[in-house]
Amino acid sequence: QIYGNPAYRLQYEQLLRFTEVNIFDKWMTRGANSYVYRVNTHMASHWAYIALELERLTTDARRRAQARTVVDNIDLHLPNRDGASLKGQMQASPIAPGAYFWSETWGSSARPGQDVAHGNGVISYVTEARDLGTTWTAADMAALSLTLTDVVMPSAASVDGSGTGTGWLADGFVKLGRYSVTAQQRLEQHAVRGQAQYMASMAVNARRLTQPGTVPTPTAPSPVTTPPPPPPPSVPAPAVPPTPPAPPTAPQPPATSPAPPAAAGPAPTATTGPSGKPRLTVTVRKKKKKKARHRTYLVVTARSAALRPGRQISLQRLRGGTWHTVSVRHAGAHRTGRFATWVRPMGTARYRVRAAATAASPRVTSAAIVLRFSR
C-alpha cells in the first residue's frame, strides 16, 4: 500500500536515483579500490550494505552487476587487500567457545580486535545479508549472537571482551536478537536501551521469534529494464521516377538558431525530441564573483509545462562523447528548476538539462547548450 501511494512512490524513485548516481556511480567511477573497498571492516561493510540493497532495487543491468561484484568482493575476496575478506576476518573467539572474534584491520588477528562501537556497522550489514540470502549463514548468526551475549555485553569496548565501552548496541548488535531467544532476552534487560532505534529493532526481533511466518524470504532483484528489440528489416520500396524540381522559393529562417556564447545576459535554448513532447526551455546566466579569477559561476534555469513540482531534473555536461551528470534537482512550484555551478572558462563546453521519466510523463531533454569561453 505504501509503495502504491504516489507521494511515497515519488520519494522512493527520487532517493533511488540519487543513490544510483550521486553515491554508487560517483565513487565507483572515482575508483573502487580507493573509495569502496576501504581500509577497515566497518567502512567496507557500509559499502557492502549499500550494494546489497542497490542490487535488489535498481533496474539497471550494469549497476546490478557492479553491486553484486562489490558484495562478493567484500564478503569473499577483496581485490586490493591481498585476498582478505569480511568472512575471512571471522575467527574463533579467544575467550568464548563458539563465538566469533575479528579485527577491523584486514588480515590481522591481533587483539583487542574490532571496537564494539564501529562493530555495530559490521553486524548491521551481515544480519541484512543473512536475511537476503547471501553467503552469511545461520551458523554465522549463532556465533555472532554468542559474541554479543558472552563477550560484548554488558559494556565491553572491543570484541575480545576487553575495555569498558558505552554499551551502545542500537546500530547493529541489537539485530542479533532476531536469531536467538537467549540474545533477545539479554537485550531486553540491557541497561543502555530505550532509544527509538533500539526499541524498533527489538520489536522486529520479537515478532520474528514469536511468528516465524513473518521471517522474510530472500528477495530477488528487481526486473531489469531492457530496450525493446529492433524492428525487422523493411522491404525496400519500388523505385519511383524522379519528379521535376520545384520552382525556387524564398529562403526560410532556420528552425532553431545556434546557441550563442555565454554572456552576461540570458541565453535561451530550445528543446529537441519527438514532436508532441512538452518543450523544455533553458536559459543560462553568467555571474561575476569576487576572488574567482579562474572560474565562472553559471546559473542554469529550466522551464517546462511538464515540470510538475517535485519532478527530478539533472544538469549534464558532455565529456569524451558521454553525458555526465553535474547536479540533480527537483522542479519547484512554478514548473522550473535552477542549477548553479562553477566552471573553468576554457574553450567550449556543452551542457543540457534532462527531466527524468515518470509514470505520467516521458523523459524530456533540452538541446545542447554550447558555451564558448575566452580568457
In words, what does this structure look like?
By secondary structure, the chain is an alpha+beta fold. The chain is 32% helix and 16% strand. It has eight helices and ten strands. The strands form three sheets. Strands 5, 6, 8, 9 and 10 form a five-stranded antiparallel sheet that branches. Strand 5 (312-319) and strand 6 form a beta hairpin. The longest helix has 30 residues, at 6-35. It is elongated and about 70 Å long.
Helices and strands in order, then pairings?
Layout: H1 6-35, H2 41-57, H3 61-76, H4 86-89, E1 91-92, E2 100-101, H5 116-131, H6 138-152, H7 181-188, H8 196-210, E3 281-287, E4 296-303, E5 312-319, E6 322-330, E7 336-343, E8 347-355, E9 364-365, E10 369-373
Antiparallel strand pairs: 1-2, 3-4, 4-7, 5-6, 5-8, 8-9, 8-10
Helix pairs in contact: 1-2, 2-3, 2-5, 5-6, 7-8
